[in-house]
Amino acid sequence: MPDGRPAGRATTERRDAVIERATEMFLAGERIEMNELAAHAGVNRNTLFRWFGGRDRILGEVVWSITAPAFDHVARTADGEGAVRIANVLGDFSSVANRGSAFAPFVRREPERAFRVMTTRAGGVQHRILARIVAVIDAEVAAGRYVPELPVDLLAYVLLRTAEAFVYSPIITGEEPDSEKVRLSCAALLGVAAHFLPAGVGVPAGAGRA
């Protein structure tokens, strides 16, 4: 390299510069354009596609760079223990996602792409969120506070898909997103719905197990 940096390091720095610039554009509510990103990194579009595989993956990296610290904060601060804590993590995270000032314009501007980036392998986001949810469940299991009735990987997937149904309801059903429905639905799947229902509201037999 002319500046003396190893080729691998220079490429990593340019890739990072692409994500940094794309994140700035995303947070500003701007459409992320490949031509602008390529020019910013000093490469051509073909190189950009070789690095990331397309615009969806760049968007996925941007979304994940915002999502990961938000999820980690929620996982540290969620109330309760055992199944209650797991339900609260999903509910709190959904609330953060619903309030995110950059996500709502993205969903309105490009609903199909937003759904694809966030909920399929194309964006590289979903499997990372799944890993975070698995870690939350594993922590409660290891502490002896929760005994799952499904394999943890499957349980995490079911909980995430349940959350997505309400977070992305504007795309799926046209309804407003509702984080409290996420919390209650996940609690029901985990057997602790009674913990979140108002006093006197009945739940099916067998609910309320920790």
Radius of gyration: 20 Å
Count of separate DSSP helical elements? 11
Strand content: under 5%
CATH topology of the largest domain: Tetracycline Repressor, domain 2
How many separate domains? Answer: 2
What is the share of helical residues?
Answer: 55-70%
Number of DSSP strand runs: 0
Broad shape? elongated
Mean pLDDT across all amino acids = 84
> How is the biggest beta sheet arranged?
none
- Which regions contain 5 or more consecutive residues with pLDDT less than 50? 1-7, 203-210
Cα distance, first to last residue?
59 Å
Structural class by helix and strand composition:
mainly alpha
CATH architectural designation of the largest domain: Orthogonal Bundle
- For the record, what CATH class of the largest domain applies? Mainly Alpha
Element-level helix/strand string: HHHHHHHHHHH
Question: What can you tell me about this protein's structure?
Answer:
The protein is mainly α and 210 residues long. The chain folds into two domains: 1-53, Arc Repressor Mutant, subunit A (Orthogonal Bundle), CATH 1.10.10; 54-195, Tetracycline Repressor, domain 2. The chain is built from eleven helices and no strands. It has helices at residues 7-27, 34-41, 45-52, 55-77, 82-99, 103-109, 111-119, 126-142, 152-167, 169-172, 179-190. The longest helix has 23 residues, at 55-77. The radius of gyration is 20 Å and the shape is elongated. The model is unreliable at 1-7 and 203-210 (pLDDT under 50). Residues 81-191 form the QsdR TetR regulatory C-terminal domain. Pfam families: TetR_C_36. This is QsdR TetR regulatory C-terminal domain-containing protein. InterPro entries: Homeodomain-like_sf, TetR_C_36.
